Amino acid sequence: xxxxxxxILCTGNSCRSHMAEGILRNALGEAHExxxxxxxxxxxxxxxxxxxxxxxxIDVSGHESKHLDRFLDAGIDTVxxxxxxxNDACPVFPGMVNxxxxxxxxxxxxxxxxxxLVDAFRRIRxxxxxxxxxxxxxxxxxxx
Length: 144
Prior knowledge:
The chain has helices at 16-28, 47-55, 84-89, 117-143; strands spanning 4-10, 32-38, 78-81, 98-101. The chain is of the alpha/beta class. Helix 3 links the parallel strand 3 (78-81) and strand 4. 38% of the residues lie in helices and 15% in strands. The protein has 4 helices and 4 strands. Helix 1 packs parallel to helix 4. The protein has one domain (4-137): Rossmann fold (3-Layer(aba) Sandwich). This is Arsenate reductase ArsC. Pfam families: LMWPc. One of its GO terms (biological process) is response to arsenic-containing substance. Keywords: Arsenical resistance.
């Protein structure tokens, strides 16, 4: 049986989608293939995203910013958007694709008063972790 493929989309594919990809891949292990991409890729993974993911033992330093078109014919089973713009820009994927939208603030623009930029990244990373680990637990339980 082939592994199910999950694609996480964001606009720039520089922060949220990479954090979600790393967290979901870590939670699911080898059971699924997990990817991320963007509707308008920034061309880089934000250094603060790499930093805060490293703090929880997940290395995303080898990730790259990619366009979602790369995955249109990749047999994607599930598409998860993590920002409103990507949700609006998401094309129709061929086949029976599950679609979910779980929006998160964009970390570089999410600083609250008195909060350092790295703390905004940590806060959003923790929100993403909560949602995606719960999703992974549901997939794991459903597979039993």
